[in-house]
Write a structure and sequence with these properties.
Rossmann fold; three-stranded antiparallel beta sheet; six-stranded parallel beta sheet; alpha/beta
């Protein structure tokens, strides 16, 4: 029996995730949304596209949670997107209600599923998913660090005119403006960024990385980024379903790692078929530790506001 991935929210991010994932041909897909007929139309269009490229997986569009039954992975992209001038945190209470509804509807139908959360503010929504689902924390993961790290890789590649395949960047912390790029560990073909880039240029790239989502929101005017976030989700799904034991940055539940407890936070994790297999702890200097603690405060404040 083929593995099954249900994507809750068939907007631009959800539908594009289905597109990337379908090309991997590793799971059947359910594309769910509350808007009548919309997910059915997108699913049919994508199913027909797969005939062109010769991929054999089944895509179902649905307005019924029943179709998500026995999912291996449930991806949650549903929620209100940011508008220009809004922060991720502005969406807290509105999207919390959506998350509660989604988890209540899906957790009974797919008791062995792994959740991947993209809804903003991401760290708090992933924490809420853990509490509402009652699932082991290894099976509830937030997609953030892959996207943030990829944005930094892109900016470094553009700056140096070098293949992005040679650029390795690592961004930790909350998925927001206080995220923490690790410039000592981040490198180009093994050479630390601090040795390649001028201090001022590196500072500008770090700042652009932190504001990367907002930059796209301001350019689009309506809606937010979806190509890169959906590609990042697909990479996580592939790592889990193929049991790759892949180390990537993601929002994971911390139990003392990096000096933090009872919080979802962006850290390097090893992903496999059971979800988060291991959290990797990088050695940090005092300045990086201080930045992580500062980043954690915003996440903790949002969690406290949820009262869960």
């Amino acid at each position: 029996m083929k593995q099954k991935v249900s994507i809750i929210g068939a907007g631009m991010t959800g539908a594009t995730t289905a597109h990337w994932l379908a090309e991997q041909e590793i799971a059947d897909i359910v594309l769910f949304d509350i808007i009548k007929d919309m997910p059915q139309g997108k699913a049919l269009d994508l199913q027909e596209a797969l005939s062109v490229i010769g991929k054999n997986i089944k895509i179902v569009g649905s307005n019924s949670y029943e179709d998500t039954i026995n999912s291996d992975i449930i991806v949650v992209t549903a929620g209100f997107p940011r508008k220009p001038g809004m922060s991720r945190d502005d969406l807290l209470h509105t999207n919390a209600e959506i998350i509660r509804e989604v988890i209540d509807q899906t957790k009974i139908l797919s008791p062995n599923a792994i959740y991947i959360i993209l809804t903003n503010p991401l760290d708090a929504m992933t924490y809420l998913t853990l509490k509402v689902s009652g699932f082991p924390h290894e099976r509830v993961i937030g997609q953030a660090g892959i996207l943030d790290s990829a944005r930094m890789c892109t900016f470094v590649s553009m700056e140096l005119g070098i293949s992005v395949e040679n650029v390795h960047c690592y961004v930790l912390g909350g998925h927001g403006d206080a995220m923490v790029p690790l410039t000592k560990i981040s490198n180009v073909a093994g050479l630390p960024l601090q040795e390649i880039l001028e201090k001022d240029r590196l500072k500008e790239i770090i700042e652009r990385t932190r504001k990367g989502g907002g930059e796209i929101v301001s350019l689009l005017k309506k809606g937010s980024a979806y190509y890169a976030p959906s590609a990042a989700i697909t990479r996580m799904i592939e790592a889990i379903l193929k049991d790759k034991h892949l180390v990537v940055p993601a929002a994971a539940y911390l139990t003392g790692q990096y000096g933090l407890k009872d919080i979802y936070f962006g850290v390097p994790v090893q992903l496999g078929r059971t979800g988060v297999e291991k959290i990797i702890e990088y050695p940090l200097d005092e300045k990086e530790k201080e930045a992580l603690q500062k980043s954690s405060q915003t996440v903790l404040e949002n969690i406290q506001k949820l009262k869960v």
